[in-house]
Amino acid sequence: MDWYQVVESRRSVRSYRSDPVPEEALARILRAAQLAPSWKNSQGWEVIVIQSREQIEKLGALLGGNPRGVDFRTLPVMLALVMNPDASGHKNGMDYYLVDAGICGEHIVLAAQAEGLGTCWIGWLDEAPVKRLLGIPEPWRLVMLTPLGYPAAQSEPRPRKAVETFVHKDRW
C-alpha cells in the first residue's frame, strides 16, 4: 500500500477481531513512533503496550461512557501514548508537547493502517483514573489511547470537507 492509500483508507475502528497482532507488525508500528519528529528532537514520549486481557477490560470499564465507544471484548492490544510536558518547548502560550504527541500519534495510526490494522484515537477520557491504572507518574500526561487490532468489519469513509473550503492562499 503506498502512502496515499494508507492515508485515504484509514478509518476510526471501534470493533475488532480477537486475532493477535503479530509481534513484527507491532515492532514496526513502535519503530514509526520512534521516528516521529519532535521539538529539538526531544522525543518526549513513552508508549505503553497493553496486551493483558485484565488490563484491557479495566480500561474498557474506565472508558465506558462514550456512546460511540470501542468494543473492548475482543480487542487484542491497546496503546497508550504518554508525553512529558517538560521535554518539549512552551512558547507564546503553546505547549509543544501536544504538537509532538499529535505527530507521534499519527505515525502510530498510519503505520498501523499500513500493516492492515485498525486504530481509533481516544482522547475523550478522564485522565486521572487511567493514569492510576497504568502507573503513569507525574508530570507525564496521557494524551492518547488507541485500540490496535484487525477490524471486525470495513467501514465506509465519512464525508470530508472539500479542500477549497479550508485552504487559503497567501492569507486568510
Give structural notes.
The strands form two sheets. The chain has a three-stranded antiparallel β-sheet with strand order 1-2-5, sandwiched between helices. A two-stranded antiparallel sheet has the order 3-4. The model has no long low-confidence stretch (mean pLDDT 93). Helix 1 (3-9) packs across helix 4. The termini are far apart. A hairpin with a 2-residue loop joins strand 3 and strand 4 (94-95). It has a single domain (11-153), classed as NADH Oxidase, CATH 3.40.109.10. It is an alpha+beta fold and 172 residues long. The chain has helices at 3-9, 23-34, 53-62, 96-114, 127-134; strands at residues 45-50, 77-83, 90-91, 94-95, 141-148. It is built from five helices and five strands, in the order H-H-E-H-E-E-E-H-H-E. This is Nitroreductase family protein. InterPro entries: Nitroreductase, Nitroreductase-like. Residues 8-62, 73-150 form the Nitroreductase domain. Belongs to the nitroreductase family. GO terms for molecular function: oxidoreductase activity.
Features of the shown structure:
two-stranded antiparallel ribbon, single chain, globular, alpha+beta, 33% helix, 3-stranded antiparallel β-sheet, NADH Oxidase, 5 helices, 172 residues
Task: Please render the helix and strand layout as text.
Elements: H1 3-9, H2 23-34, E1 45-50, H3 53-62, E2 77-83, E3 90-91, E4 94-95, H4 96-114, H5 127-134, E5 141-148
Helix pairs in contact: 1-4, 2-4, 3-5
